[in-house]
Amino acid sequence: MSIDMSQFHQVFFEESFEGLDIMETGLMDLDLGAANDEEINTIFRAAHSIKGGAGTFGFTDISSFTHVMETLLDEMRDGCREVTREAVDLLLASIDCLREMLSAVDAGDEIDQVRKDSLQKDLESLLANGSGDSKPQSVQQTVESSKDETTSQGIWKITFAPHPNLFKTGNDPVRIFRELKTLGVLTSIVDISKLPSYFELDPEESYLTWEMKLDSECSEAEIDEVFAWVDEECELTISKLTEQVIIDDSPEEEITVVATEEKTEIEKQDSVKPVVARKKTNKKAGSENSSIRVGIDKIDALINMVGELVITQSMLSQISENFVESDLEKLRDGIDELERNTRELQENVMQIRMLPISFSFNRFPRLVRDMASKLGKNIELKMSGEQTELDKTVMEKIGDPLVHLVRNSLDHGIEMPDVRKAAGKPEVGTLQLNAYHEGGNIVIEIVDDGAGLNKERILSKARENGLVGEDEILPDEKIHELIFAPGFSTAAEVSDVSGRGVSMDVVMRNIRDLGGVVEIKSEEGKGSTFTIRLPLTLAILDGQLIRVGDHVYIIPLVSIVESLQVESENCNSLAGKAELYKLREEYISIIRLHKAFNITPDSTELTKGLLVVAESEGQKVGIFVDDLLAQQQVVIKSLETNYQKVDGISGATILGDGTVAMILDMTGLVHLSRNNPVAISNSQSLITEEAVA
Amino acid sequence: MEIENQSETHSMMNTDLDLNAEQFLSFYLAGEEYGVDILRVQEIKCWENATEVPNSPDYLKGVINLRGTIVPVIDMRQRFGIEAIEYTKTTVVIVLKVEDADRERTVGFIVDAVSDVYTIESELLRAPPETGDSIDLGFVKGLTSINEKMVVLLDIDHLLDEEKISESQNLH
Asked: How far is B71 from chain A (nearest CA, A)?
């Protein structure tokens, strides 16, 4: 019976990536020269399980590579090798390489052999050099034992199918077999299925193929050498059977051979299947189909709560069965309890999706270290609030923007040591990453004590690009926000770290897509602070229910600035088409929801309805609706799962009465009303009708 | 009114299950009988008001809440360009699983009434007749006769192809 190993691949990859993260964090924390045993142990264990897993699944490249890393770590652990910067750097580079190898295998791509080989060679040479102190003896031993393991006792499976013209080249398989026999115990099975009848047989042609098992300590290269002369004249495959196959070292050799043969059959089948399976998972990978690890305590809490819910429910049905008026109080209590249970359950289910932000922060020590050495700056990274939890999806999406912002601070913010010294600041720059909860939001701060934003330069650059008029005077915040404008970069020279002016507007867009905002505080010469505010989860939002005619829609509360009654003297129209409303000192454009969505309102007169002032992409718009209803938390459901994307709608939700209500997407709505195809086609048909009349 | 469990439907049918036979759920639409693959049927629901989707085609009556998922509901009559009627007591929504090129969707179809479950052997399936280039019958799987009456078997995966539908709509 064969087990389809490919079903475990995904788990292996996920665990391996986690292991790599652990190794990376561990290595970053290591004190050079005086490493803590426990720390090295953690790193070692992670490497060891990756190696073991890779071996089990037959990813030999990965397991052999990890093995060398592991050997190095083992020596560090035994204390016979000092933890040098060189070794740590090499290990970090190896982790990067491993990560790439794993993702390549995961995606079904070829792995980068050149890089792997060169790194492996570096590692091996580091190993061979020894630590140069205390116990060279044991170093030697480990190296030897490592060699033993890679070339250890094993069964080689060789398929040898010579081309028909083999004999004409003067080669004889018999000689090859004799040579093979000197390497170890050889068993071979000959396949005579291609052998023609006696009368058709050409004595000068070869018709046979062989399948051989070679029980030997030799390496693949040695076997290859035997076949060197017939390389061109045959189909040859050499493979090593997996380690588990040869565990049994029983004297009855025949049985072992039979057993291995069966396994090879299985392996053959398996080797076909995983490819297919992998292709399937590949498709899925795009749709973020990852898994999540949940602590057993969280699950237990959920089960408890469901238990309570069931009890409450049975209590309620008992009351309703023989309901008398005196039970009303009991019924109310029961419903209260039900409500509390449901809310608790909801909160706890949400909790499952929550992960500490350290998952995202953990990459920064490495990033800062690498970038600091590249830029020649001295930078200390301080992190706080790593345990602050946020939704997994939000975390995945905030990762890249955070990296951009940190890179930006490192590159443009913190100055070179000599500049800092001249400015009377400590040579070592500090970069702080803080995370904390505030209301229903998570706040992430990126604080540097660098040069701060140069207002003059930003302004002159913005004027150059035509983003700001020549004589316009802007408040500080507006100037700071300019750095998020598309194509804006003030870096005097474009470095390979940042400065192409691409990243910042992407950062802004990503954060806005998540329903978040960025604030900048900056003081020249003292540093800057980027504050990102994000909703804790993408699954629930606070919404304002509004009504137009018979239709109920939801506007996300975050985007609403205010709601007001329209005063006719403040209404203006621009070129007879666009309607504007004078809101104090500003003119905002009015979007009539009934026009944008082609529905019938109670009234088309602005004074009879309400104007909801909302912000979209930093611009205020007034949305004309019939009425405001309740405010409530709504669970966001996707329209796209079963239908498709709808312009102006970001999703749907289910209201208390079980009906569906659409959630408005402010940005989409503004675009929709700007070039409303329905309105255009309607007006066109009107014109043609008139023309006909 | 709801038939949620397909196996139940199966067990109610006492036909000899032939390997070459397929089972179809049939429904009425403007006097004609149509059939869909029964294995695609999720459930049959009474018509209830749907929430309209802004700027959507006429035949999309809106979306409904199907135990927490948002499911679009399509009026089959309008879909085929047949004159729409007031929904009656027999009007039902057949919720089907529709497979697109890359995903599986759940879609509700409003029909005049459900009729029966037929087991039809594949050799009794006839290809739709050639109607010339003007009509694309890509969403018709085949025709068959039950009690001397024609039943049109629909290929529901192609029922949502925009072009095919609009072409058939142009005919009316």
From this structure: 6
